[in-house]
Amino acid sequence: MEEVRASSAWVASHSSHVTVDSEGIEKVVESVENSIPKVEWNYEGIHYFDNGPLTVQYLFVLDALNFCFWPDQELNYDDLASGLKAALEKDQSVFNADRLQKYTGPELRELLKWPRPLPLEDERVRLMHEVGFELERSFGGKASNIVESCGKSASKLVATIARHFPGFRDHTVYKGHQVFLYKRAQIFAADVWGAFKGKGYGEFNDVGSITIFADYIVPAVLQQLGVLRYSTTLANIIGANKEIGSGTEEEVELRACSIYAVEKMRDLIVKRTGKQVLSVELDLWLWAYGVSNPSLQHHRTLSIYY
Ligand SMILES: Nc1nc2c(c(CN[C@H]3C=C[C@H](O)[C@@H]3O)cn2[C@@H]2O[C@H](COP(=O)(O)O)[C@@H](O)[C@H]2O)c(=O)[nH]1
Predict the structure, then answer these.
(1) Residue 44 half-sphere exposure toward CB, CA atoms < 13 A
(2) What's the CA gap between 198 and 202, in Å, rounded?
């Protein structure tokens, strides 16, 4: 994930619309350094878990579809996680690789018991097909085989997923520079780690290499905490709920500066307390804080990456 760190830092140092405020970082770190709120993975109890390979299959399908909920005001990540969980509990074969390749939009909706078309539904269906096809072609149909092929390395897992599944290649070009963000690939590694509590499929020797997952919630939290500052124009666009195009400078800066800022927070916490802290832990805390504040205004980009 060195490329995620390095390219995000590059964006932060060439940024035009978003600033990382080092005083803001110091204040936040001062207020939490001795007690980083520990957020349990699956604190909401919405995820499927059976301690076996089917859990890995579930998490992979979940993270293949884990993006862009906001266009439907009533749809949340929870609906996806708990909808897929209920479907799997009813029928253990719903995520078999052959079945994944055949879903239609209405069938996906039916699986989730969602009463109307999902945002970017055609893309969601296409990505399910892609996952089913490549799982079958290269991994014996099982996402657990991807994990097993990575020798307990989260960064290898992210790289393997990005190599095999185009839908997970969350990268862009910013001011002529290739930038890697890998939100859903990294969140999958973190989900496996969190679900299995760092054991079995979830044992990674390099879990510290994962960065935060640059979505639309974490930047809004960081801005509210005073860690990120927006230009007036950008603040107005977000405040007016106007869409920001995918791949625009503004969008890339929001995401990359969030990654960079949390890496800085983590460095400072380690320096001041001598205690190790993982970016994943900081992400879970910031994200849980964000989703518990529905008034928080976030940026709106139609994207399959987050
Ligand atoms: N940075 C970060 N972003 C995250 C997650 C998660 C879910 N992680 C689960 C895994 C274990 C825990 O128990 C969590 O429940 C979803 N998202 C993103 O948020 C957005 C959903 O927003 P809304 O429209 O309000 O539902 C959407 O872009 C989604 O992709 C995270 O952990 N970190």
Answers:
(1) 16
(2) 4
Q: What is the pLDDT of residues 176-220, one digit of tens each?
A: 999 999 999 999 999 999 999 999 999 999 999 999 999 999 999
Which residues approach ligand 1 with their CB closer than 6 A?
Answer: 41-44, 66-67, 69-70, 76-77, 187, 191, 194, 212-213, 215-218, 283-284, 287, 291, 306
**Per-residue pLDDT tens digits for 241-279:** 999 999 999 999 999 999 999 999 999 999 999 989 999
In the chain, what is the greatest distance between 2 CA atoms, to the nearest angstrom? Answer: 53
Mean pLDDT of the chain: 96
DSSP string for residues in 53-88: HHHHHHHHHHHHS----TTSTT--HHHHHHHHHHHH
Tokens at 230, concatenated:
């927006």
- Catalytic site positions: 215
How far apart are alpha carbons 46 and 134 in whole angstroms? Answer: 27
Element (H, E) at 174: strand 171-174
Helix/strand number for the chain, H first, E second = 14, 4
Confidence of residue 35 (pLDDT cuts 50, 70, 90): confident
Ligand 1 centre distance from Cα of residue 134 (Å): 25
